[in-house]
Write a structure and sequence with these properties.
This protein has one domain: Nuclear Transport Factor 2, Chain: A (Roll), CATH 3.10.450.50. By secondary structure, it is α+β, with helices and mostly antiparallel strands. A 6-stranded mixed beta sheet has the order 2-1-6-5-4-3. Helices cover 27% and strands 44% of the residues. The model has no long low-confidence stretch (mean pLDDT 96). A hairpin with a 5-residue loop joins strand 4 and strand 5. It has 4 helices and 6 strands.
């Protein structure tokens, strides 16, 4: 399986909160960093952070880019009731087809701030 297919499957398993499946993607000593909240996780901690987060989730990979050994994904993750939605940009480094390092930047999806709406600048992407 190529890395693009692997990451599409990975994000599906993340949304399903399947701890056993997720653990298999990682090297035992993988380093996971969530920069927006200044958190560092080992694999077991990452599983808790993802699999014990409340709610039922969906995901859609919007873009995957490969630059040498670095693979970058942009993914939308949302609650099935649509009450929360995020976009995450993830930087993956692999060793022997396992994730050795993962750096992520999560952002809440939402409306533009009122000051920009008041200026009538920009338009919707979708």
């Amino acid at each position: 399986m190529d890395k693009k297919q692997l990451l599409i499957k990975y994000w599906n398993d993340i949304a399903c909160q399947d701890a056993d499946a997720i653990k298999d993607y990682f090297c035992n000593d993988a380093a996971i960093r969530w920069h927006c909240t200044n958190e560092f996780f080992n694999v077991d901690e990452f599983l808790i952070a993802n699999c014990e987060y409340p709610g039922n989730w969906c995901s859609e990979v919007e873009r995957i880019e490969e630059i040498g050994e670095l693979v970058i994904s942009v993914t939308r993750v949302w609650l099935t009731d649509e009450s929360m939605s995020f976009h995450v940009t993830s930087f993956f480094r692999f060793q022997a087809n396992k994730i050795a390092e993962l750096d992520e930047y999560w952002g809440d999806d939402g409306n533009a701030p009122q000051w920009r709406l008041d200026k009538h600048i920009g338009s919707s992407i979708k």
